[in-house]
Amino acid sequence: MEKEFKSGFVSLVGRTNVGKSTLLNNLVKEQVAITANKTQTTRTAIKAIINNKNSQIIITDTPGIHKPKTKLSQTMIDTAFTMLGEVDCILFIIEATSNEIGKGDRRILDKIIESKKPCILIINKVDLVEKESLLALIDIYRKEYDFSSIIPISALNDDSDVVIEEIEKLLPVGPKYYEEDEYTDQTSRQLAEEKIREKALKFLNDEVPHGVYVEVEKFVDRKTSKGEDIIDIDAIIYCLRESHKGIIIGKAGSKLKQISSCARMDLEKMFGVKINLKVWVKVKSDWQENENLINRKFKLK
């Protein structure tokens, strides 16, 4: 007898830089969320769609929980917590290197308890700790909430199948919300913006990256004179200060060229066609406090 088809929505929550986006990309087998060894990489609620024979799972990677310092930061946190009340289950990811429930994890855990939603606890980076420490951490969390399951994972292994199996147990019988070939709800423009920002995060020092956002002003599919497909993309990297603009551009444009070149190569792999990418840098000093801009680009839809 064929299994009933199940579908549902899942929220992925955790502190900044605990590996949420990496886990999401592993689960969907596509890069839908940018990754970088920097805090606050994810700014919006990014949906990833996992299509299996008997299920469709829609997972939202929410911004990491951190102490808000700007309107943008507060919007990111509000987005993450808003999602908890609107899903069928929650994936809560923590680090195995913790030996207690820290302030950030406690804040998230309290919201999960308040939501009363089924929750899977994901303990990341288990390869960095001894078994005894891991068992002690599991015991601490078990006393706090009746988790549906607790899954230790490691960046060294692909544990995505185990996570998906546990999610499917918690989903209701339901329809396909998206077509089978869809793996994200982001537009091509948004994917391009995030890819450029990912490279900025990678190549810039700690002070600059979180003061930038990217806006694609032109995204046009066309044919070359030889009849080949190509996409023209014009994008602007906005930053907070003139000094940051100079750092992003670099000596004789070297840093901007590095960011653009790496972004272009990744975008060509992503879209499967040649990319003609042009990137400029402009200063917009108040953008992190600009409510209209934040609502347009970063607020939960």
Shape: globular
When the domains are counted, the total is 2
How many helices in DSSP terms?
9
Structural class from helices and strands? alpha/beta
Outline the structure in words:
- The strands form two sheets. The chain has a six-stranded mixed sheet, with helices on both faces. Strands 7-8-9 form a three-stranded mixed sheet.
- The chain has two domains: 6-170, P-loop containing nucleotide triphosphate hydrolases (Rossmann fold); 188-297, 2-Layer Sandwich (GMP Synthetase, Chain A, domain 3).
- Strand 4 (89-95), helix 3 and strand 5 form a beta-alpha-beta unit.
- 36% of the residues lie in helices and 24% in strands.
- The protein contains nine helices and nine strands.
Which SSEs are present, and which pair or pack?
Layout: E1 6-14, H1 20-28, E2 46-52, E3 55-61, H2 71-84, E4 89-95, H3 103-115, E5 119-124, H4 131-142, E6 149-152, H5 160-170, H6 188-203, E7 213-223, E8 229-239, H7 242-249, H8 254-271, E9 274-283, H9 291-297
Parallel strand pairs: 1-3, 1-4, 4-5, 5-6, 8-9
Antiparallel strand pairs: 2-3, 7-8
Brief overview:
The protein has two domains: 6-170, P-loop containing nucleotide triphosphate hydrolases (Rossmann fold); 188-297, 2-Layer Sandwich (GMP Synthetase, Chain A, domain 3), CATH 3.30.300.20.
Features:
9 strands, Rossmann fold, 24% strand, 9 helices, single chain, 301 residues, alpha/beta, three-stranded mixed beta sheet, GMP Synthetase, Chain A, domain 3
